Predict the 3D structure of the following.
Amino acid sequence: MISSSRRGDVGAAVRVVPDSPYSAICVVVARGYLDDPVSGAGLAHLFEHVWFAHELDAPTVEWGETREHAVVLHHVCPPEEVPVVVPALAQRLLRCRAALPDAMAPRVAASLRLIALERRTGRERRVFGFPRRDIARALRGDPGFDPVAVDTDGLRFDDITSFLTGRRLAVCVAGPQASPLPSPEDLLAAFAVPPDQDGTAPASAPALAGGWTVATDDVEASATAWLLPPTVDVAAAAWLAIGLIERCPPPAGLRWVSGRVVSPFGAAAVRGGHLFAVAAGLADGPAPDLVHDHLLPLLRGDLAQFDAVRATTDATRIEAADQAAIDAIDLIGPATGHDAVRHAVREASTDTMRDFAELLAESPHADFRAYAGSRR
Amino acid sequence: MTAWERRDGDRSVRYVHTGDPQPRLHLRADGPPPDEPVVQLVHDALTLPRVWTFGARLGEAAPLVDHGRVIGVDVTMPELDPACVWEQAARLHDVVRAAPVFDERAGRALERAAAASVETSHRLATLATLFARPGIPDRIHAGRLVADVVRAARRLLEEPAEAVPVGVAVTAALGPGTLASGEDPALGLHRPRRPPAWLEVGSPRADLAYLQVRRAIPPVRTVRELAATLIANQAAFGPYHSELDDVIRSRAAVSYLWDCVTDLARGEFVMLAAPDAATADRVVSLIHAAHADAARPSARPVEDARRIVRTQVLRRLASTNSLLLAHGEAQRSGLPVDLWTALSAALRDVTFTEVDAAVPGVYAEPLATTLVVPVRPDVQQASTAPAA
């Protein structure tokens, strides 16, 4: 059960998650790493860190994600603490927008130091997994792009204080019915922001295409990614396709196969479409073509597992923290709507998957290959 | 979330009502803690595949992962008769109780498992600390550590008299149930063997340094005393705006990672940081200074710490998988079946006075530091064997 409201650039939603033992408050800003200016890469990631560097009058368990077109700021707490945490977050938002340079400087400096360390935490385990960073490079059209790094040349404090200007903002609360949930209007009042120009939605970009090679020391792998139309049916089919891929053992020549979609629940369109990707680890010997020898035959085949996958997908329980984020991302749009996608999953048939296979076969895509040093 | 348990010398089965309509089993083959690293290596290399084969016959099997390590098999089944689970546990015990025999294939499996066990600095630091014995050098190399652990595992397999008895544990999710009321059960937390006060491990894989600073959980008699201790520890050393977190991640900004894990199975707190190698000594100094300071928190930090610890516990109960993992941790440590419901309630209800009374115990436990430092691959390797 969800109720939502919008005032200007700010959207708010409250959803009851009946069995959740905790509550979540998610704040989302409609500006991610693909929206960073060419000369200011990393600004969205820096904002994420600066958000957490500002004091919170009621500390919570909190973490952030800088996504393609959104900074997602998660906060979770015991249900009865929501009335304390919401105003504390509204106060933090005010600090982010209005901090004076002498208050902002140490926070930006600390954030930049932590980001420099964060970049190095991922280096010790150079096993090739799902190529999110490489897909990000393709989406950005820059082979050297690093979504974690911050370009500090010419960085000014008001790049951070004005980060939200003209961007949509959403705040969503998800928690159990027994908790003192606020109304969407309460949230809008707490998170009121000065009127900016209209919030902007991300612009569309050319389709994802081309071949990308990634050097890696450890494992040889391949991946293919598509930007598909952002419709409810495509989102549902992509979600179900992931379940089918996971139930089907990898064919000879592949060690593992995995499917992902950046907008698995219908939210968070990327460059105006649904970003869907499959990846596989290659075993020794001749490797099959991941798409034409495995994925498309799977989706066009007898789909014996389809009913089981649909039932499992339909029964997926989403935790309050994820639910609050999905609803917030839905609000900043453009989005197809999480509840509509869940409905489409229930209505889907094997024909849906066959249509999806044809869509994949006909659509432009980008291929990624990661070669082990010895086999390059 | 009602739960009950049945156990004998070989098997333990814990039944948990999770509210999830589909039954699930978490299958594990393990003995009581503490896990010796050599025993753990034999388990990962040679026993776990048997558990997997058994689990895959029961239903849809997936690796059961806890803190990045595969510890068992997660099986989803169309239906489950609780009476049969006890029998399934007996059959699983039949499958895993025969000690593995050392041969060439087993040797390769041990080497693979050992290599995996040092893949990250966290796992390397844990292995080095648990494998350490009095008299070992205080500076060792990851490669030498792996070789020594594999050699010790091989010796264990070649000496049938030293074979380790293996028990099995099944944690079963049964479907909807009612919420049990929280009381204050008695606790018997394990007291960990004291690790070396200082241990340094060279890793050719590491880029940043990595710190684990251990402190035993002070003796507690009941869940309520444990709750007071967890809040006192969080206020001083925990993640998310504790005194030390504010210093390390904000004021000094010397580590992207700051966490303090509560390991109920081993009975210790483990503080974690990942600083640059050049500033690792400074982070160690900050931790030791905060520990020596033994500051008593006032009411506001205690309320903030209560909010954080309660949230962490409530999140562990939020999904079927994490709930079963939490019960599995309590199950193998011999902790009560109502630990989690009682702890949730105690964290809400424990008073400031009780938390304040727990503070001296938190600071009374000595610190033990394990530091992983990046080294060039050609650096000299010291043995982990105790000096003669």
